[in-house]
Amino acid sequence: MEAAFAELPLALFTTLAPAGAGAFVALACVFFATSFSSEQLKKIDRMTLVPLVVVLVGFLCSFFHLASPLNAVGVFSGVGSSPLSNEILVGSVFVVVAIVYTVVALTGKLQGAARKGFAALVAVLAVVFAGFTGAAYMMDTIASWSSPLLPFEIVGFSLVGGAALAALALCLAGCAGEALGRQGKNVLLIVGGVGALLGVFAAGAQIGGVASLSNAVVSGADLVAEALPLLIAGIVCVLAGAGTLFVVCLGKGSVPLAGLAVVLALVGIFCLRLAFYATQLSVGLAC
Fold first, then answer.
1. CA–CA separation, 246 vs 256, rounded Å?
2. Of 152, 94, 90, 93, whose CA–CA distance to 123 is shortest?
3. pLDDT tens digit sequence for 119-129
4. What SS3 class is residue 147?
């Protein structure tokens, strides 16, 4: 379990940044499914600052993993050959485009097709960023992380956490009730539901697979047994967050319920990320 808490900054980063990015995916889908008035769009755009701040806080957490903040520039030196450098590059592009989108939206200059097109671009970059975040951990030297499930896991977390954050933003803007409409609510439920199932399945399968591994020092089964409480808590919270999101979409969209959905989803994702780091098993000592 020490390995999990040693990676606490990265656990926070991989929880918050993809979830915040996923909110842009959910909001883009809502814009395609629902027509809002200009006044409603202004309120939604102001609340888009909520997921953007979550993304930025996530990136800020990642800096605490570096021995020195000055080393941050060096991560770009391996672009094209290093999965980590690729992740940071894609993440940086997403952040810049998301900031530009939010600023332009706040000026009131995004209308109609322009809004949908720009929102779609940010959404695509968000999914790519989440996928690259998972792929950054696929390395042959750590047997427990060498799994093609990792990108799907982070994308799933991004969608379920993002759908909850989008619902909160819409509730805060007063646009989660009748204004959202049946199609908009269905879109949020689909994004959140697919994300929850994808994230939980991928995380459970990847961590469960560690049980069959071992090296000269530790057994994968022992690592999984130690991380089991985190795994169970994470799965329960993520599914509870998705369930709360369902209640939000069925009702009038209350801020407290949407906030609860966000808390449950993020706590669940965080627990699953800690379980992931707790089951780190290197091949350096021979499997």
1. 14
2. 94
3. 999 999 999 99
4. coil
Tell me the β-bridge partners of 282: 142
Tokens of 79: 């672009």
Residues near 63 by Cβ (< 8 Å), separated by ≥ 6?
9, 69, 72
Q: Is 266 in a helix, a strand, or coil?
A: helix
Q: What is the pLDDT of residues 1-18, one digit of tens each?
A: 556 566 788 999 999 999
Q: Which amino acid, 175?
A: C
pTM: 0.91
Spell out where 56-138 has E strands: none
Is residue 252 helix, strand or coil? coil
Exposed/middle/buried for 216, CB within 10 Å: 0-12, 13-18, 19+?
exposed
Q: Give the integer Cα–Cα distance in Å for 195 and 161.
A: 8
* Model pLDDT, residue 178: 72
